[in-house]
Design a protein that fits this description.
heterodimer; A: mainly alpha; 74% helix; globular; B: mainly alpha; 14 helices
Amino acid sequence: MSGGLFTRQPYLSTAAARTLQYIVLILCAILFVLPFIWIWSSALKTSNEIMRDPFALPTAFRWENLVQAWTVGRFGSYIGNSMLYCATIVPAVLVLSSCAGYALGSLKIPGEKFIFPIFLLGIMVPIQAIMIPQYYQVRDLGLLGNHGGVIVPGIAVGLAFGIFLMRAFFRGLPQEIAQAARLDGASEWQVFWLVMLPMARSGLLTLGVFQFMISWNMFLIPLLYGQIEAIRPISTGIMFFFGRYSVDRGMIAAGVTLSSVPIIVVYVFFQRYFINGLTAGALK
Amino acid sequence: MTTVDHTRATAGAIAPAKARAAGGRDPSVGQSYRFGYALLAVPFLLYAYFILYPLLQTIYFALTSWDGAKPVKEFVGADNFIRMLTDPLFWGAFGHTLVWVVLGTIVTMVLALGLALLVWNSPRGFLFFRTIYFMPQILPAVVVGFVWVWMYNPLFGIINRSLKSVGLGALALNWIGDPDIALYAVLAASIWAHIGLIFVIFVAALQNVDNELLDAARIDGANVWQRFIYVVIPQLSNAITLVTVLLLVNGLQGFDHVWVMTRGGPNESTQLLATYAYQKAFMENQIGYGSALSVILALIALAVSVLTVNARERAAAGQA
């Protein structure tokens, strides 16, 4: 683990250099954290307090903002919808990507060389390039304005990367094990579900975390297909919330707080999985 | 095990030959293929319906003057593309996207690499810093955007308050309200949001840099800068290519932060290709023209991916 451009350099491994290193690291940390601390603390202030001195601590802790945002501001509903979308999209993408990834990467069905690039296309093309006709596809299925209108396209958009990742994982597995299981009389389904899939566990975990983040944060899909208040997830819901309470700064700060604190708490506990999952996702 | 060599684990050319040599067809092969197609059916249909077909439709819509409502989509050939050539807003969005992508890629990369170098010796508290730098990645773009809208607020935002409190009131600008600087202000927020991811990628890549080469260079009298340029950078070339593709493609898709912070304004000064296409198609019902814009965006994204991956393969071939 030890390495470094500077540290082995006598004149730079001095206490002064170390101090400088930490000063820069801490300043950067402040740059990332301060905006949030400012807004979280603003959630406990009145609009006037926020205007007067942004750096002051709240005088009286006004929890009403948070309570109001949750109830009147519909945050409870937004977060519920976000959870519903994640609870449906993530497992569906995991299962479907595993199926296709296994067929392409492990069974290597004939035509694989032709089919796989078609899925690759989906990774390279930005969603903006398909969103216009996709809107009509969703409408024609009668999914506009209900939860399915967000869930089904959400799954479809996740498939390209999911299949790409799972195919790579299944390719890397020793195929002899599948053969051995077949000789022992296992059905094709048993080979897939009981033998090969458990071996791709780390791939599933990576994809699961990645897809969770994508689904929790998805913006364009619910913006296009989930335009009814009752089905908005947090990502678009908060935008309309901000529009509604544009003059009530305390409420806006409460909205930012409610939409960031829970996910940050989850992140702090599972940060290793988040960082691994998102990095693997980015390095597609 | 010869009869079951149809797993084609590595060399596709050898396996069928072996199977033939072993006495012909293995009945289980057809069975696993059938099973494979069955597994592929649902994901493929979903993908075809929601991604592949719309992709082709985008191209078709781009050749029509459809407004999204008329029953007939009037075919107009390349009219939409010709219109683009004389549309100042398109060229504006094109220029902004270029600035957004090029500047965003360079600045993000330099800052993330600098930070990664700072933690290369795994200082105490490394995990703490990594957790914090990465944090914006996990938040919805809307939240990040709004946090920055507040930071930039000329009245109560902490940026201007801080500048005024240290006597730099002259620098306290109307960040996202001034057409001359709004694009850069939004880009700064976007860079802030993406740095952590690139930082983590570089940290991982730095772990694979050969320390003995570094030591050798030091003994040979190379200074810090020379060691960085001639020893570290070449060993990071793979990571740098990956990060470049990632930032370029993400940059081209830039939509969320702009949409949340400025909606392309003020005065169209932050309009990117992606937001412009959205606005034309969904706010102004110009499905045909919006689709044509999307096609151009997709072509640029594809070209960038292919070019960068090619460059990378050439570089890899050069190394081998």
